[in-house]
Amino acid sequence: MSLEPPKKDWFQAPKGAERVWIGIALAWCFVMFLMMPYWHLFGKQNSTGEAYKVEPRAFQERVEAFVEANQVGELDGQPVVEPPPGGEAYLLARMWSWYPVLKLRQGETYRLHVSSLDLQHGMSLLPMNMNFQVLPGYDHVLTITPTSTGTFTIVCNEFCGVGHSMMVGKLIVE
Amino acid sequence: MRGLRDMNTTAEFETNTSEGAPGKAETQDKGRGWNLRSLVGGSRTCDTTGMPVCLDGQFFIRINAVLAVVFLLIGGVAAILLALTRWEAVHLLPREWFYRMLTLHGLNMLIFWILFFEVAVLYFACTTLLNARLYSRKVAWVSLGMMLTGAVMVNTVIFQGKADVLLTSYLPLLAHPAFYLGIILVAVGTLVGVFNFFATLYMARKYKTYEGSVPLVTFGATAAAIIAVVTLLHGAIVMIPTFLYSMGWIGQPDPMWYRMIWWGLGHQSQQVNVAAMVAVWYMVATLTTGAKPLNETVCRGAFVLYILFINIASAHHLLVDPGVGATWKIWNTSYAMYLAVLASMIHGFTVPASVEVAMRNKGHRKGLFGWLTAAPWRNPAFSAVVLSVVIFGFIGGITGVTLGTQQINIIAHNTLRIPGHFHATVVGGTTLAFMGLTYYVVPLLFRKDYILRSVARVQPWIFAAGITLMSFGKSFAGSMGVARRTSTIGPAEEAYGAAVHVFLGMLGIGGVLAFIGLMLFVLLTVGTLLLGKSNVGRPMACWGKPADLEGADMRSRPEHEEHKTPGTVILVGVFLLAFAVYYFANWAALADVWHVR
To answer: What ipTM does the predicted assembly reach?
Structure first.
């Protein structure tokens, strides 16, 4: 029993159903492990963690330059910015807003740079429910291809102070 | 319990049933070789099990267990406030207090309740089970003093509103220095307690207080202790610089570095819980049904897998982070090819299988599940552990592995799916198992029989039902994208479907139910300590044990059938099927979202 020292000859190979279960469980573990490299090779949704060190202020300047060059309109006081198809896009997270509103085209692939000006934030793209971590000092590059159209919502899902739940932004795909 | 007594040769142990404080009891060391050391404290023989109880150990187990329950109560009150806030239709707390209570809840539940209880489990596993005496009262006092001081500091600073940073306190969020100092004190205090455990193991081995290998439960506790050391070292590595930074003495540590090392503390401490919980599963299975492991090598091997591979789970929290590459993420999130998951799947077989064999040996052999229906379901420790195994495996385990899959994490990270997962592991699993054990700890070590025993018999069911409902509500709401750690979904409401309110309502109702179960547990336990009838000098009141069918003993079962566990085979088959369905359904859901790399 489990509360007493075992018999002297306790070192035994498993038998019967126990042995079979260990084999099946191990095989299942390998299946689950192999699914991840498989998806990197053949799947379309992967997080590679591509990122570059960047000073928050320097990143903000790049965002401002990006907005100035590509602004196409305004929504709720935020600039709407349409990056060139297949080009670079920027998204700045700060307490407590997402800047700017991006306008993307369905089927085009963008290199989306996301970083934070202050605290850690979480980029949650709704209603697809795609989530990525946003850190100050790290330019997180998502090579992203919208496959659906409409107006999407970005909420912050990393606690960033008392206004956290109000940190809601928009993203448009045509 | 008679079986237990029979298996022990009580004559070896001195009998000292006096209720005196440790140190007062007369010290007799006959046959224990322990008198070579000038350690204070005697022992008594348990009136129920015939096992030796170190009075020092008993004293510190009592204090640690009582404090654990106090922190459980604080965390529980915070929990109900949070559940009633996230239940959007109720939305009780203003946002400042939501985040304050969330910080309080996380620290008291995940750190204080669990660590205080685990130190108690460690002290038990190294004294009574090894016929040994706790290494040092002084060390135990130092450990307790540091842990308690730290916990009080942390709770005070949270209530003062100077640490609204949640459990993780992600930099550059910054709390009052006392917050970090308190956590460091708790961590180091726990390390000191773990040292006392290892020192007792060493002394027991040196003075041969037991023969052969340590019992399985002690082995499991040792696994938990080893993981705890690695975990708490991570805590020191991350918390000390953060404390120095909060004092303004050094520059800000890197946020990415902080996340990686902090989760070396945060996730691994949950693996300490897993190892301790599994040890408790084996312990309660033995106490309630007389179960013994089918194969000690397999059970111990599975604990070794925990020690070797569970330590790299920090990655679970960094799967969609910048700055760590895909290869690193895959290798670490899978615990090196899921070998720690393998360990849990092994325990998930061996625990029910050992109960099945024990029950069949008692004569309950009807059909596939006759052993299960005849099990002592009225025993709250038994039902708590069965529910713990089921909730941990079917909900916590399956969701944990799936959400921790590198790519699937994209549709799960920081949503309510994550707390939906870990409330099933650490609450439905660990806390429920610890509650079950408490139904033996109080009668055996506090020597009081439970009051309102019929209420105790339903308590695990209420708590389990509440946690399960809450966990489902969170998981479904999280699948719709609802973020965790957010006081309200209000500003983004149109982004979710209307169904989200159904699931947040489930979360709230489940939370209320779980809170009722928790309060029953606390009231029963505290009430018993104050009002319970003493059982000194007699065995504890029996919670109910499986009947020994007449004429059935081990020998009447054919030898070749002794290890046959057809019922368990069906159960694990159902488990694997549920696992595979949930796992691949999530890949299918992932394939629907935008392309990203």
So the answer is: 0.94
